[in-house]
Amino acid sequence: MAVSQNELQAMAYTDPLTGLGNRNRMRDKVMQISAERASDPAPFTIGIANLDSFKPINDLFGSAAGDEILCQVAHRLKACIPDGALVTRHDGDEFAFVLPLIFERASAEKFGQMIREVLSAPYDLGDRNVRLSASFGFAIYPFAGEDCEELLKSAETALYRSKRRGRGQITVYSREIAQEMKRATQLEQALRNAIISDAIDVHFQPIVSLANNQVVGFEALARWNDPDLGFVSPGVFVPLAEERGFIDALSEALLRKAAEAALSWPRELFLSFNLSSAQLMDPGTSTSILSILGRVGFDPHRLELEITETAVMSSADTAHRIISDLRAAGVRISLDDFGTGQSSLGRLRDFIFDKIKIDRAFVSRINSDRASEHIIKAILAMCEGLELEVVAEGIEDYSEAVKLRTLGCGMGQGYHFGRPADGIATLRFLHENYYYDTSAQDRVSA
Hints:
By secondary structure, this protein is an alpha/beta fold. The chain is about 45% helix and about 20% strand.
C-alpha cells in the first residue's frame, strides 16, 4: 500500500517507539519560536532529561521491558508538560523539552524538580516494579545559544555536569559551567595520556615507630606534575580516574612502580598502598594485585593495603571476598581515616583488619581539644583489646608525637617525620637515616 506524503512527513517527525516527536520536531519548534520572537527576542528554555542507570536495567530485564519503561516515561512526560511546550525523544533514554514560557534559571530548576519527581515513581513491568532517577540539563535562549544546535549543545554540557555530580541532578547552563566542563574535559584527556605514557609518579612518606622514631615502612602516594597543567592534586585526579573508569589502570601502574622501588629497601620495611572504592567493587582486584607482586618479585607479606570505610560499604560482599583473598596470600589490610565514617565499629566487627589509621582530624587537635584526646584514647584502648596495630596520621610537630607515644600509640606518620619524596630521595633518606641514635628527638626529614 502506498504511503501518502503526509504520512511520510509524520514519520520523519515522530519517534516510532513512543509516538513523541523527534529531533526534527524539536528543531522546527525552536525555529518557530525564534521566528515569532525575532523582533523582541524574549527568552525560552530547552531541556534534556537522561535516565540514570537505564542500561543495566535494560540488560537485566531485556529490551522489551526497556521499551515498556521508555513508553511509560513518554506517557508521564506528555501528561505533565505545560500548554504550548513540547516533549521529544532523542537517542535511547534521552528526552528533550522546548519550554516557551520558562524564561530564567529558577523556573527551569523548578520544572526539572517537578519532572524528576514524576519520573521517580515506580514503573510497572507486570510481575515487578522498577525505580529510576533522571538527570537534567537546561539551556536558556538566547544566552546559551541562538539556534537549536547551539542550545542543544549547551543543554548537553549542562547535562554532562549533572551526570558528573551524581544521580538526579539538575543543571542550568552558564558560561561558568561551560568553562568548568571544558577544564574537566582537558584534565580528563591529560590524565588519560599521563596514564598511557606512565607519567604519574609515586612518592613515599615514612611511617615510624613512636617508641624510638625508627622507620618501619612507607605509604605510597600518587603525584602528577603535568607539563601544561602543572601540579595536579591527587584529591582531584584520583576521583576523576574513579569516575571516568580508568582507576584500575592508574592503580596498577602505581602499585608496580611502588613495589619496584620498595625492592631496594631493607626487607623488614613494609609498603602501604591505597585501594579505591571502585577496586573494592571489582572481583578481579585481588588477582590483579597478586599478579603485579608476582611479576615484580615483591613479597606479599611486605604489602599493606589501605582501604576506607566508605569504600568497604560500597559493595560489602565483594569487598569481603577481595580482603579475604589478599589476607590469605599474606597481604595486610589497614582501615584508613578511622573515626570519620558512619559505622566504623560495625566494620571492625564484620571485616578482619590488621591495622587502624587514626584520621588526622583527631590528631591535629590532640593538644588543644579534650574531646579529640579522649576519642584517641578510646580508639587505642579498643585496638589493644582487638589486637590491632595503630598508626596516627598527620603528626606535624614534636609535641603531638610525644603525646601520642605517651597515650600508647604504636606508630605515626606526618610532616614531622618526613614529607612525601620520590623513590631516589627515599632511598637516600634510608641510607642516611635508617640506623641512627634512637634517643635523638629531632625531626626526621626526607
